[in-house]
Design goal:
Elements: H1 6-14, H2 19-23, H3 26-40, H4 45-54, H5 61-68, H6 76-85
Helix pairs in contact: 4-6
Length: about 110
């Protein structure tokens, strides 16, 4: 069985209709950033919940999982709690794509 790299799998996924649009959703982009930070810290989702509790932040592992998967039902308040538990933000740069021509009326 051939081994595939992450890049191979992502290229294959992006060829599936709707996947690129999903991966570009703000909730999914934020989810990737949250998971990346947690992993950089060497924490499991459970460890994050435990450390958050020590700071007086109430989270559950299921909530962290939803946030890290880009679930659209996660509130901004919950995302704020997770970000705080992960050390807070240094900045939040938002870069938009080209002008959304499809939304401009003729």
């Amino acid at each position: 069985m051939a081994k595939h790299t992450h890049e191979d799998v992502m290229a294959l996924l992006k060829s599936v209709p709707g996947v690129t649009e999903h991966l570009e959703k703000p909730s999914v982009i934020m989810a990737k950033k949250l998971a990346k930070r947690r992993i950089e810290l060497g924490w499991t989702q459970t460890k994050l919940v435990e450390l958050a509790k020590e700071q007086g932040i109430v989270l559950t592992q299921a909530t962290v999982s939803k946030a890290e998967s880009g679930h659209e039902g996660v509130t901004q308040g919950t995302l704020d709690k997770i970000v705080l538990a992960l050390g807070g933000l240094q900045d939040m740069e938002v870069n938009f794509k080209e002008h959304p021509k499809s939304l401009v009326k003729a």
